[in-house]
Amino acid sequence: MARNILITGGAGYIGGSIVAAFLSRTTGPLTNTVLSTAVRTEEQAQRLSKLGINVIQLDLHDETAVENAVLGNEIDIVVHTASSIVSSLAENLIRALGRRRQATGRETYFVHTGVTALFAEENGWTYGEVADTDADIFEKEKEIGGPNPVRVTDVLVMEKAKEHGVTAFNVVVPNVYGRGSGEVRRLSGSIPAYIRTAIKHKTVYKFEHNGSPPGAHISDITELYTLLVEKILLQQQQEPLPPSNEQGYYFAMAHRIPWWVTMDRIAGHMHARGLVADPHPQTWPSYDAAADSLEWPRQYVRAMGTSTGQLVAVNAFRQLGWQPKWDEKRFLEGLDDEVQDVLELDTVKATLFQPVLGRE
User: Measuring CA to CA, which residue among 245, 252, 271 is closest to residue 313?
Assistant: First the structure.
């Protein structure tokens, strides 16, 4: 029996790349599914329609429109990449999946996209080392609570999924890099922001504190989502469902990103291309100056630029058989490609932080 899958954020970096990854599967359970994607604009819809999938122009803020889309397209699985920040979008989707379950008696599934930076001290995590297999990880997130909108959304997803009888998973993504494979946006958020700002100021900047956060290449991230959704689909063949709901955290950490080394390498590559005046990075004069230049929220710029966190990734490897192809060495060797990608592809304005910046 085919399952109907909806990917939100199909015009975005991660969502668009997931669409491409799902379509590239030539064997396995994904070949027996009906794939839909949600986009915001007519232009985005036109660009994705050539893929031969069901493209839905949808305002995820509109509860009625979301319900009509989920019920009308008989959606069983939602992979939500459109926003980790605006909790109402996730709530609308989960509520609609709950109504789909009520109407049909079929199980429904919500795959959420979280953020690894939440589990760092700079973002209020006070519990030190954390593994995605820890039984109390959700309760600790809930205890910390707001005001971080990503944590608010994490908690809401698990609570609303339980309320509406929807099975939930939280894929907790790190700093993602590499050229995406989607139809619209192919640049990530973090490293291109540094490069874009360096071009503007003719100087590469780094933060005064050297962080080493989790990282993963976009191709490895899409493989993780693919493996998870395939596991959900194979449950129909009596295979066990991987951990879900409050135990359904999946830290998508392939390796660490040493920021100072990264900025040194980027400065060298950009200087060789004549894009900056100095082959060595300078230190940001303040966090506020960095936030304004990078167009990141001031209240979270320190966590975004300097956090490390003591994360232990288990579930993606043990439960899904995830085998990332990119490690720290390969990442550092490929940084000149990140510069080239910005020069070629920096044509679609990033919107990830617009709700926090008050520009939604």
Answer: 252
